[in-house]
Design a protein that fits this description.
The chain is of the alpha+beta class. It is built from three helices and three strands; from the N terminus they run βααββα. A hairpin with a 2-residue loop joins strand 2 and strand 3. The longest helix has 10 residues.
């Protein structure tokens, strides 16, 4: 897989089905590279973003910490 993906390819990599969810990720800080009308997202940036937003479920309530 290439380092720089189209938005559609990035969505497939993330396992999401709609652009609304991707827009939420971008609003939360997922960086997008814009050159002219072309937009790309780095695989490394996705991996870093997801790691930074990772939470662990608690065993007592089943809810995630920090939510």
């Amino acid at each position: 897989m290439t380092e720089y993906m189209t938005l559609k390819t990035a969505m497939k990599y993330l396992g999401i089905c709609n652009y609304g969810t991707l827009r939420e990720y971008i609003a939360a800080g997922l960086p997008v590279i814009k050159v002219g009308r072309s937009k790309r997202i780095s695989k490394t940036a996705i991996d870093k973003f997801m790691a930074e937003h990772q939470t662990a479920a608690t065993s007592e309530t089943g809810q995630s910490k920090g939510a």
